[in-house]
Amino acid sequence: MSVSTEDHLGRPLVAVTGVGLVTPLGFGVSGSWAGLLAGRSGIRRITRFPTDHLKTTIAGGVDLPEDAEPGGPLPASVRVERFAALAAEEALAASGANVDGRFPGPLFLGMPPVEVAWPLRMDAARRAARNNADPMRYPAMIEALGERQDAFEASCFAGVGEHLAARFGTRGAPISLSTACATGASAIQLGVEAIQRREARAALCIGAEGTVEAESLIRFSLLSALSTRNEEPARASRPFDKTRDGFVMAEGAAALVLESLEEARARGAEVLGLVLGCGERADSFHRTRSNPSGDAIIGAMRSAIADAGLEPRDIGYVNAHGTGTPENDKMETLGMRAVFGDRPPPISSNKSMIGHTLSAAGAIEAIFSLLAMRDGVLPPTINHETPDPAIDLDVVPNQAREQRVERVLSNSFGFGGQNVCLVLGAAPRG
Q1: Which is the catalytic residue, given 181, 205, 278, 421?
Q2: Catalytic: 421?
């Protein structure tokens, strides 16, 4: 019996034919997934840069060979591009969609906000001063950093998408976006919608993060958002636990090759799963806090389920945003109860093991959701030692659970009330 290649609205069904990962648990899908199911933590003490006087000295870092070389560690924009390229290479190799160095669709790249880190600004100022130039003028910065072209390029996040598009031969202008902690999921949503509108046969969707550095740690510390459990790195990220005290910064990347199911079948590609629905809501309430009503979070979850043509009862598992901050976990519980009522499905947080990968999180967690359906196992929420009476959910505590599910809701809730949820489905049979 053949399966339809269109959804309930007559749109092309969107298949995932290749995935790639870089996480604090390892390079590649197999290593990251095995570590996750084993309940292994990728959080450790920071050694890449000095942490004197920082309140938080732990992170889910990903070390590159160049970090140990003279002149290292690599600046954030270079790390983002390197992680994104590694994930994309794995995803494209798995999908077989890249023929003769050309990819049959656009690139949607989710990455950190475009800005110049303070160390680079100071370097520019010092060099401009030597040339009697005004360091606050952009041309002067270019001229000052001209002595070190690599330093200038390292400050240009805007070039990352162009470099990746040229490297992998994607079609059209690459789209780079940043929607806070929902960025990776937003990149997937854009790819899905392009295929659904029949504007593209395929899409390469990437979420990448490489900003584990002192400046970022200071910023989040000033918001009281980070865990300070520095003496126990592996136990620091504890979503839904009563003793949670904040999230742990992390970095990495995820890449997904999306194609119409019809296109994938026509070329005999192996389908890992489907992206069935997307939901997006913003609450415009506060720069960092969610609206206490939870309307945007609830709306994003409901919209994703409705977009997939499903009912809440059709969702077998929820991959949580689950940051481990007191407020986020409380708000996500509110959303779960509002959407699913008295019998919510199991929910677990990958961030308990890999930390919060920020711009990459939504894409990484979408891949973990697909793998959960493929293998019939739900990843755990580790460090769940003291249940919070206010969070009466099945959080798959501490150990992975064998359980077959056909539909997964993956939540991504960002600072500023930018919320994106995805509904993913198991690979079709027949």
Answers
A1: 181
A2: no
**CB of 46 closer than 8 Å to CB of 278:** no
| Domain parsing of the chain, residue ranges | 14-115+157-426, 121-153
Is 356 an active-site residue?
yes
Give the residue among 336, 343, 303 at the shortest CA–CA distance from 321: 336
What is the Cα–Cα distance from 95 to 17, expressed in whole angstroms?
5
321 is catalytic: yes
14-115+157-426: CATH class: alpha beta
Catalytic residue selected from 278, 356, 384, 421: 356
Opening angle at CA 319, ends 31 and 80, nearest 5: 55
Q: Which of 53, 163, 205, 321 is catalytic?
A: 321
Tell me the C-alpha distance between 26 and 32, whole Å. Answer: 5
Show pLDDT as tens, one digit a residue, over the chain (430 residues): 467 999 999 999 999 999 999 999 999 999 999 999 999 999 999 999 899 999 999 999 999 988 888 877 888 888 999 999 999 999 999 999 988 889 999 999 999 986 555 555 566 566 656 666 554 444 444 444 444 444 445 455 568 999 999 999 999 989 999 999 999 999 999 999 999 999 999 999 999 999 898 888 998 998 889 999 999 999 999 999 999 999 999 999 999 999 999 999 999 999 999 999 999 998 877 766 777 888 999 999 999 999 999 999 999 999 999 999 998 999 999 999 999 999 999 999 999 999 999 999 999 999 999 999 999 999 999 999 999 999 999 999 999 999 999 999 999 998 777 999 999 999 998 6
**Cα 182 to Cα 411: distance, rounded to the nearest angstrom:** 8
